[in-house]
């Protein structure tokens, strides 16, 4: 910490000490790396010359050469372009690190000459060099990055490029440019192999759709993408259709509810929930009934991925049907209430069950079904069994009972709203339900104070009397 700080202040003694350390053959590796870092923090011309010498030494250690080039690039904003170009000369033709070092050295350079140089590196270098060069080029001219990605003979820079960083830079540049051409490019990146890039492209398309000049192009592209053969594109297109309110595409989204890839099916359910249309409740009911029949049998290691997304789809469908207060969903939603225990574990997914119970509360808002209320009271009070009920289910049960107007649950509400527990959700739900039934204002539970101790775990947190005396 001290040496870089002194170097930034231009302390000459520190610079001399660091240079001596580099010249000492007995210096440990960690101290050599620190010395290069310190020199990079310095504004000393002598220090920069030493770093350049390390970079030029084609027989030197590759890691130290790259560290030196990076240190130079971060601090020097002009004057290194000639040095970087020299690394592309015939003298360094056999140096496999030369192009990478040249890219690192020009991090903060600017101007047309630097742009041309970075384009040259992107076209000549390997994937890592291309990623670094394009990142620097984006800072100077996002349009130049787009031109590389779309130019004749430049297919290497498109969505199939093997380096994730290259594809990410192209996505970001397309958003920064924001044109009809870049909308088309971003649509292809909905099929990127990396989920982060797919999300990046989707976010960019959503933002560009807020511009009047581009909205029609984005909406048309997303609508077409709902029929794309790739499951990745279908997943992103479903989510985008929800955020862009493309309810006119509901028929195609409904078809995707039954897609063989669970990610697509879950995204389609999310879109249908966001469309919030009566016309989609029938397909939603059919899909939910199928999920109730099969999903809990999927909780095994070989199928845990499908199980997770099937559960996610189920939650969206329950919420959709609850919002629309679809009474035909009642018998299906009731199927989620019972707790199923096997080998000491609850095998039914708690978030699905809690969302189904929430939906029942919305459907029967203002009307009391004694049998249903009894089932939910049992879920709320299930805290002392060998396998207690999940907090999500208990919380949803309290809300539903409040919507029903079940006064028989008041004793349970009082019990759990005053119960000191690390879980605040159930207490808040019971307080809300009691207030709804009685009109009585119920104070919100205070936040629990937690005492942290770094002492031995068996030692009492509070000192014993003898310890206090000492």
Main features:
single chain, 470 residues, mainly alpha, two-stranded antiparallel sheet, 2 strands, 63% helix, elongated
- 3D shape: elongated
Count of folded domains? 4
Order of helices and strands: HHHHHHHHHHHHHHHHHHHHEEHHHHHH
> Main beta sheet: strand number and arrangement?
2 strands, antiparallel
Number of strands: 2
Kindly provide the radius of gyration, computed on alpha-carbon positions and rounded to a whole number of angstroms. Answer: 31 Å
Measured between the Cα atoms of the first and last residue, the distance is: 40 Å
Helical residues, percent: 55-70%
* Number of H/I helices: 26
Portion of residues in beta strands equals: under 5%
Q: For the largest beta sheet, what order do the strands appear in spatially?
A: 1-2
Mean pLDDT, as a whole number?
85
The chain-level structural class is mainly alpha
Low-confidence stretches: none
Description:
The protein is elongated and about 85 Å long. The chain has helices at 2-8, 12-23, 29-41, 45-56, 62-75, 81-86, 98-105, 112-124, 127-140, 142-150, 164-177, 180-188, 195-208, 212-225, 231-243, 250-256, 262-275, 281-294, 304-323, 330-334, 350-363, 370-380, 391-404, 410-417, 425-438, 465-469, and strands at 341-342, 345-346. A two-stranded antiparallel sheet has the order 1-2. By secondary structure, the chain is mostly helical. It has 4 domains: 1-134, no CATH class; 141-231; 245-363; 364-444, Leucine-rich Repeat Variant, CATH 1.25.10. Helix content is 63%, strand content 1%. The longest helix is centred in the C-terminal third of the chain and has 20 residues, at 304-323. The model has no long low-confidence stretch (mean pLDDT 85). Helix 22 (370-380) runs antiparallel to helix 23.
